[in-house]
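TOKENISE THE FOLD
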Amino acid sequence: MSPAPSPPHRVLRAGPDFRWPGNKRVAIVFNIAFEAWSDGVAPPIGPMGNVLKPGYFDTNAHSWASYGAVRGVQRLLRIADSNGIRASVMTSGVLAARQPETVAGFVRGGHEVIGHSWGMDVIHLYLDEAGERANIDKNTRAILNACGERPTGWISPRGTGSFLSTFLLAQAGYAHHGDCNDDDLPAITQFDSGARIVNIPLTMDINDLPHSNRYGNTPGTLVEAFREELDQSAIADPAPFMLDVTAHCHAYGRPNGAWTFDAMMKIAKARGDCWIATRREIADYTLANTGMFA
């Protein structure tokens, strides 16, 4: 299937004089992935790693993924709050509809709510333009109804948008998105129509799902990877960059992994070269300093 082309645009990249606030070397975002699948849909794979025969509902995978909304999200929020850190919470619209009080609690706690499609099975690459617009609107309204605030940021499941997604999100009033990992600094997509949106890369270096589920690493090695990246990157190259720390409520929202979120927050807070920010704060900083982009 041939993809629809993106409307005419140009991407403004951070120039050599780009600096984070306070001349910090690295911006760190702590993401919480509060995810679910649409009603009647199970994740394609569960913690055992073996796929059922086609046509069978995977009750094991469904139960495993449901843990995030039952226990995991509360644990990760408690950890963020105990460290005084505001997280960016990627929120499936179906969960905003099912658990509006939980999503309202994100806002009351000072955290950012990020649109994350209706469900993890609703991927824009599979939708036509009308379907994308409808999904964006449905997800936006679910979050607005839950917490009283429209989300200003969006990250698609898998970080996989279509060629139209960036334009449609900008048209819908979104200020930033994370469906990109072609940079380690923010950029600005400026459309010829006048719409614009900030591209904030979803860096994958410190992400619990590929780290543990795909590669089979232990939780402690994620903390060491985080520490090593902060320590060694400065030796190799002093240029500024950003780094996401992502914990999925149904994965490292569990006791065996949630402690790593706490450990990495404490490491970041103890350093003098880190700006800990939400994705919204990065977008606001980018738009307030467009002179550093060309």
Remarks:
- Residues 104 and 147 are 4 Å apart (CA to CA).
